[in-house]
Amino acid sequence: MTLDFGPNEEGYGKAMVVFAHPDDAEWGCSGTASKLVSENWDVTYVVCTDGSKGTANRDISSKQLSKIRQQEQINAGKIIGLTDVIFLGYPDGYLEPSLNLRKDIAREIRKHKPGILICPYPMRSLDGPYQGSGHPDHIAAGEATLSAVFPSARDHLTFPDLLQEGFEPWAVKEVWIVGHPNPDLFIDISSEFEKSVSALLAHKSQMSMNDDEVRQRLIEWKGKTIHNNSNFGFKGRAHGQGMKYAESFKRLKY
Fold it and tell me: Where in the chain are the domains?
């Protein structure tokens, strides 16, 4: 990876991943998170919602599901080697890019001081294999995160009570956006692919497929093959990149 800042600059060696639900990062960027950890970066996850809605099981309550999914995310984080997992606890399914959410994310940015921050694409895509099906929580998490990065975490006059809590302003160096329709950054996760599969499989409550089917789905998404059948109709992230497996991002430099 070629970064826009060097190892002697503040923020180097620290990364943060902000997403809506437990398991979102495992689908989108856990290979990258694992690769950063393998290169001695401290990586922190920030989960915006409580994960209390993602089930078809009518015999489980939202409170029970939330507890299960939180533990699943902790277990996945241990597989990857995360420094910390933060749960903001907003209700699943109702997330909005509110000032409160922006403030809570800005607080975590100021606290952990990441050089790189990874977050979801903050718009609904109307093209591709899942046209129009972007989860509103993902969109809200992406918008709130980008607004927290700039200007809220950076400017001392924004959310001045964060200063009173002891959190000094912090300027993130780079943001990598998951799910952008035109990515320009491809991370080779070939060495971390199996670990990313294991991390995803930690989210047992979310799996309608068996382990082999989950692994095959990740191979299709993050490999180098073009899929033209009606179920997919897309190319794997590593296609044309000279990599076996890859994760892709839109890169923003600040």
Answer: 14-212+246-253
Cis omega (within 30 of 0) on the bond before 114? no
CA dihedral for 210, 216, 218, 221, sign (positive or negative): negative
Tokens 């839109």 sit at which residue? 250
Task: List the Cα angle 103/180/35 in 5-degree steps.
Answer: 80
Q: What is the pLDDT of residues 86-115, one digit of tens each?
A: 999 999 999 999 999 999 999 999 999 999
CB 117 within 8 A of CB 254: no
> pTM for the full model?
0.94
Where do we find the tokens 């943001």? 175
Q: Does the 14-212+246-253 domain belong in CATH 3.40.50.10320? A: yes
State pLDDT tens for residues 66-90.
999 999 999 999 999 999 999 999 9
